[in-house]
Structure formats: C-alpha cells, structure tokens
Write a structure and sequence with these properties.
Elements lengths: L5 E5 L6 H16 L5 E5 L5 H8 L4 E5 L16 H7 L2 E4 L2 H7 L3 H13 L3 E6 L3 H5 L3 H12 L18 E4 L13 H20 L1 H6 L1 E4 L8 H5 L6 E4 L6 H12 L1
Parallel strand pairs: 1-2, 1-8, 2-3, 3-4, 4-5, 5-6, 6-7
Helix pairs in contact: 1-2, 1-11, 5-7, 7-8
Amino acid sequence: MPRKPFVAGNWKLNKTVAEARQLVSELVPGLQAIPGVEKVLCPPYTSLMAVKALLEGTDIGLGAQDLFWEDAGAFTGQVSPAMVAELCQYVIIGHSERRQYFHETDETVNKKVQAALAHGLVPIVAIGETLEENEAGQTAEVLSRQLRDGLAGLAASPALSTGGPVPMVIAYEPVWAIGTGRAATAEDANLVVADMIRPVLSELFGAAFSQAMRVLYGGSVKASNAAEFFTQPDIDGALVGGASLKAAEFIGIVQAAAS
C-alpha cells in the first residue's frame, strides 16, 4: 500500500488563543479543499481546546507539541498523555528544541512514546543530527542511536503489532536546518531516510513495518521548496515550523504534498 502523505504544522511557542482562532479560520477552507493528505495542526497547549472546536467536522487532525509520561501525580507544570488524548489524536515527541533546551534524552523520548501509544495517540517522533555531528560524518550513528534508544521495547507493543496501519510517524529534522533557512537538499534528505532510517526500522520491527512507516522531513520547509522534498520516494511529508504560522504558506505545502 502506498504511504499517505502527512503534513503537520508545529506552531511552537506562538499564537495566543485569539490569534490561533484567526489562523485556523484562515487555514480550514484551503486545507479542506485538499484531499489525500493527512493534515495536523499542533498549537500550544493553551489553544488546543479552541482549535479542537474549530476543527470539528473537518478532516484536519490536532496534535500537542509534547507530553509527560506519567498519567497523574505531583509533577507541577506537566501534561499527562490522558490529558492530551482528551483533545488530540497526535503528539510531537523528541523535537530537537526539547532535546536542546529542556534536556530531553533518548530515554525520556522512549517513555513518552510508550505512554502516547498506550493512550491511543499517534507519536510524531523527531530525530536529527547537529551541524557538528553532520560535518563529522556521524549522521548515521546519531540517527541509529536515537531510533534504537527512543523506540526501545516497542516491538512488543500491542499498538505496533496489530498488522494494521503503523500508528507512528518519524520526522527527520537535521538540527542545522531548523529555523535557519538552510534546508538539506531533497536528494540528501532522501538518502538519509532510505539508507540510514528505514534500515534501522527494518532491523527493529521488520521490513514490512519499515516500508509502511511514514518518514517526514523537517527543517526550513516552505511552499517554494516543499515539492522538491515530496517528489523523493522515501519522504512522505513534512513537519513544518515557521511556515505553518502563515496560512497561505502552509496550505501551499499541503497542496505540494497532494500533488
């Protein structure tokens, strides 16, 4: 079965509730007119309820930007998977900004992925190497470690062993390309997915799982360059940052995925 294109917008720390409502009102008509693409918006926690209400009756999914792995307890400031699952279908886990600024590790990523799957959420698991690691020729080593440690113990997960659609998405985001305007070339990104990411997934879960898994590219994706990435055979969509805050840009990216 061909992999359905997938485009998610990560709003990061942007948009008040009022601004979120305005952006969604601009996005919905254009996104609704584009068939054949799985579309997801990931606003801040504070806007999730408002955005959920505006997405009712559409084919646009809602995602959170993170979660904690415990269901309840004395964890001030954290948001549990059960709380996220009340509102969302998706959750981003392991974004490089979480790793860089908030000391996220492959082990905490693993706990969060397991918790998300246990609550019926689809994790969008972000992986990627820094500029230093890339220039040192360590990309394959870094991505292999992030996948093996971040997805450890999941082969036996009921959510992943049903034989149905894979309820997880991988987002390859080279850290040096995020928010810098410096995207990897489409050909290089595709080689990373085909030669480094899918072989590790195949080792962990089997060849069929690896081929069914959707792998996105993220890092300075815009409407003007999205088609270059989406025409690559092993890139199935994008995790979009800054361009997802502009309705015309994000709609253009989704249109490129549909085409």
